From TrEMBL:
PANTHER family on file: PROTEIN FMC1 HOMOLOG (PTHR31716)
Name by which UniProt lists this protein: Protein FMC1 homolog
Cellular component GO terms held in the UniProt record: mitochondrion
Organism of origin: Macrostomum lignano
UniProt family annotation: Belongs to the FMC1 family.
Entry superkingdom: Eukaryota
Length: 80
């Protein structure tokens, strides 16, 4: 995970904005806000990928498969 360029960028940005006097640097809370924003973004990306894996386009589904996907069962049709 440390090889991921986005993770390295976030870590470097956070280290670069250590709390010092606010005269020559960004406000103290800005680095924390950015870290929180990045965390939200990464979490959302992970959830999005999970949804794609679960419900993503896998071609045509039968009615029974679609029903099972959302937790329902299709009743068996009696044969005549």
């Amino acid at each position: 995970i440390q090889q991921d360029p986005l993770i390295r960028y976030i870590a470097n940005e956070f280290k670069r904005h250590q709390a010092t006097q606010e005269i020559n640097c960004k406000a103290q809370n800005e680095a924390s806000y950015l870290a929180s924003t990045y965390l939200s973004y990464l979490t959302s990306c992970q959830k999005h990928q999970s949804l794609i894996d679960t419900y993503g386009a896998k071609g045509e589904r039968t009615t029974k498969q679609a029903a099972r996907l959302v937790g329902l069962d299709v009743p068996d049709t009696p044969s005549q």
